[in-house]
Automatic annotation (TrEMBL):
Annotated organism of origin: Polaribacter sejongensis
Lineage: Bacteria, Pseudomonadati, Bacteroidota, Flavobacteriia, Flavobacteriales
Gene3D superfamilies listed in its UniProt record: 2.40.160.170
This protein's name: Outer membrane protein beta-barrel domain-containing protein
Keyword terms: Signal
Domain of life from the UniProt record: Bacteria
Signal peptide as annotated in the record: 1-22
Length: 223
């Protein structure tokens, strides 16, 4: 009887040990939601090594029909109607250089499927030149459309492990996309029609806008 008890105890201890080992298997995946300058994001991350993680992020944002009235441009007062939207897919790698710190360096490629800004400018009121009055309808309107597209590398720094140590983890990241010059479309109507000839000047002015900020706050769930 004692021998059987010892056997049962041995089997129990072996089973408990194996169960403990199975529970200690490291979870290397995480799902996260984020919000920031690229918009609302959904993320999947995979731990490759103790210091290296890979991730895929889809981010989207849309601000439609944003109105700004009585905007002063030089000596003119105009109304602005703007729409901004973006859709970006990130393929990235995050490196944690310090063992006991969540500080990280991030790099990767952003697939800019659609990053667009559209602005419609109209005069707020009629314009007078001496005794002559030109109605705002006859003055016309200006429509500017700016689009970034293609593949944009990005770099950044932040805090927060892509795959957190505990079940949930919080993180923040600061960086930028490095883009090419945007495509520009400029149209104008009525008396403002000659303004459309300034398309190249506007494009040259936007050549400096080759950096799109990438600021994110994220909440991750490990599984």
């Amino acid at each position: 009887m004692k021998k059987k008890k010892k056997q049962l105890l041995f089997i129990f201890l072996i089973s408990f040990s194996l169960l403990g080992q199975s529970q200690e298997i490291e979870k290397k995946n995480a799902f996260a939601i984020s919000i920031g300058s690229p918009g609302l994001g959904l993320e999947y991350a995979r731990k490759v090594s103790p210091k290296l993680n890979a991730k895929v992020v889809w981010q989207t944002f849309k601000l439609e029909d944003f109105e700004k009235e009585d905007l002063e441009i030089k000596d003119d007062v105009v109304d602005l109607l703007a729409t901004i939207e973006s859709s970006i897919i990130d393929l990235g790698i995050e490196y944690l250089p310090f063992k006991n710190s969540s500080f990280k360096l991030t790099t990767g490629l952003g697939l800019l499927s659609k990053v667009n800004a559209n602005a419609l400018i109209t005069y707020t009121e009629d314009v007078k030149y001496g005794d002559i009055t030109i109605t705002k309808e006859n003055i016309g309107e200006i429509n500017a459309d700016v689009t970034w597209s293609g593949v944009a590398p990005y770099l950044g720094v932040g805090f927060g492990r892509p795959v957190p140590k505990k079940r949930f983890g919080f993180g923040v990241e600061f960086g930028t996309y490095f883009t090419s010059s945007p495509d520009v479309e400029l149209t104008a109507t009525n008396l403002l029609s000659p303004t459309s000839n300034q398309k190249e000047n506007l494009k040259e002015a936007l050549d400096t806008f080759k950096f799109i900020p990438r600021i994110q706050i994220r909440l991750a769930y490990k599984f």
